[in-house]
Amino acid sequence: MELVRKLDDNSTVSIRNVYRRRGYSLVLNDVTLDIPQGSLTIVAGPNGAGKTTLLRLVCGLIRPDQGRIELYGNEMKLEDPSTRPGIAYVGHSPSSLPALSILENLQLAVLLFGVRLDKVEVKVLLQACGLWRRRNDVTRSLSRGMQQKLELVRAIVTRPQLMLLDEPFNALDDDSRLLFQDILNSRPSTTTVVIATHGIDDIKPLADRVISMENGAVKDDQLCMPVKPHGHFDRWVTSETVVPSTINSLKTLMMREFRREWKFLDAVPSMAILGVLMIIAFSMATSGPVTAGESVAVGALWASIAFVSTLLAVRGFSAESDQGSLDLLRSAPVSSAMLYISRWLSGVVMLTVVSVMMVLMAAVVFNVDLFRMNVLGIVVSGVIALSSISALYSAISVPARARELLAPIISLPATLPVVIAGSTGILESLDIIAGSGLPWLGLVLAYAAIIVSCSCLVIGVALEE
Amino acid sequence: MKSKYEVTKRDILFGGMASVGLITTMYMALIFAPADVVQGDVQRVIYVHVPTAALAYLSFLILAISGIGYLVSMNMFWDRLARSAGLLGTIFTTTVLISGSMWARAIWGVWWTWDARLTTTLVMWFLFLGYLMLRGYVEEVRRRRRVAALMGIVTLIIVPVNYLSVYWWRTLHPLPSIAAPDSPGLPDTMLQTLLVAMCSFGFLFFVLLRLQMKFELISDRFNEVRSS
Fold this sequence. Notes:
The structure holds two protein chains of two kinds.
Chain A: H1 2-7, E1 11-22, E2 25-36, E3 40-44, H2 51-59, E4 66-71, E5 74-75, E6 87-90, H3 102-112, H4 119-128, H5 144-157, E7 162-166, H6 174-185, E8 192-197, E9 209-214, E10 217-223, H7 246-264, H8 268-286, H9 294-323, H10 325-331, H11 336-365, H12 373-396, H13 403-410, H14 412-429, H15 438-463
Parallel strand pairs in A: 3-8, 3-9, 6-7, 7-8
Antiparallel strand pairs in A: 1-2, 1-4, 4-5, 9-10
Helix pairs in contact in A: 3-5, 7-11, 8-9, 8-11, 9-11, 9-12, 9-13, 9-14, 11-12, 11-15, 12-14, 12-15, 14-15
Chain B: H1 9-32, H2 46-73, H3 76-107, H4 116-137, H5 141-154, H6 158-168, H7 188-227
Helix pairs in contact in B: 1-7, 2-3, 2-5, 2-7, 3-4, 3-7, 4-5, 4-6
């Protein structure tokens, strides 16, 4: 009891008069509490008590409507990742990428959190929880319980100062539950753990404190003396709280994106096939006694590129959200702008590959010489702009149903200027209309710069829950 | 004291003024203004087509301003304003498309052609539709308001594209002739009728916006009460 009281002066988390609504309902109602450093706190309560919302607030996934949250004595700001370092969040659904193996997922997670992967620690943890022999298997082949174990291992290897675990033992068998309880109980003295659960019997012996919640308010706050003072797991590695550099974060996020694409092969092939089919369809529709001219070829090319770019909008952040991995990205010490830029740049690479194929196809079926440097330059600049639009709209459509329908409609106005400028630029480059085409290239790049800059400013708003 | 949810005397007064304006417009458009020498009576569509087009633009502007207002202040007023403008924008853009299509049939001989102005107007209509769909497809209300505000800001891009389309491309759609300095413009009677039509439709828009905002306020209150 005294230990906890002493630690109270050195809180990891301070929550002050926090209110939060979900829709029209009040989910958290004037919550005030401190979570001492090094403690294991259980947040208990029935379904709908506000436990998950509380954890997501502390993690920085959502912001309070009123009140203030401090981490390590500094006010937490969603838009500033440096104010929420060293947090590991394990939510209800798995956050690993299903197409990657256990080891790949762990490797990417530690890079995202700016720490180095300790291979021995990983081996010991995976062996202890029975995942070592499946380490090279893709995570979609794992059972729900195994995925949950992976989530917990992922949280541990990122060496957090604060672990926020939402119903962490739900899908686990008895042995695994005991194992992870022992692991959590062996944590370093500086690591704080908060567990939200509706069944506290199993873990109460480990807890320093039990907070009971009901209808969004703290009903009871009980200090305890842990029955089991320390566990037996000796592979916890501690490290200083770090915020990865911008370049490293960007590199990791893009590597993550390309690895996923390499394994899944869902974006580039589908965009390429759809784009090529569209060009063939345009060519067939405009063939006949009068051969289609260069204007039709350029129009068909741009219509196809713009159309396939909407597939990026459907995929991007929305796919991350569907897989549950968006929470992992947003809880990492990475800014929303960086998430956007990585998505945009990886989109540029993928869409460029697809567009070059489409230029080739258009050149062949329309019999037009499109392989000129200035034509390709304009296509690439258009791709840069279209990809920036797709990344923004993929964020806007994250919470929406029927995204496949919405994305092309809502991205239309932003896409249209690119199509117009791109088409005119290529027609000028082909000497079909007067001009060199270069001013259009500059215009498209300037437009892309405006979209990217504005998106970096607003992307946090779009992704925030 | 009247509740803010009720239709006030001022609403009725504004509604009455809009009705008088529209009746006056109808009289002036059908009787006062002469028929066009070239196009004949069908040119009278202009007295609906131009004001509704201007109000569709205005709806986009309100969407963008209220989007910024909501994101900056998180005040529900802006969200209600955006919702109302989105709905009215859809109605007015539909009117533009229908009236324009009727006019095109009489003058160009086709209901529709892929002309730059027509195409960008259709895009505008899809945008309003997309905006309303986005609002309908996002379950969580706060998130819905936020992404709709963002969408409202971004959609403003279409307005200059639509307006300038007749200058950028060779189109069938005529260039703006009323405000252009070197244009012969409209005869006085036609110009006066058009100005009255603009004012009347503007008033109608304003009244509908007020009433729709009240409806949205009641709707919000109803949802609050239901969930509490």
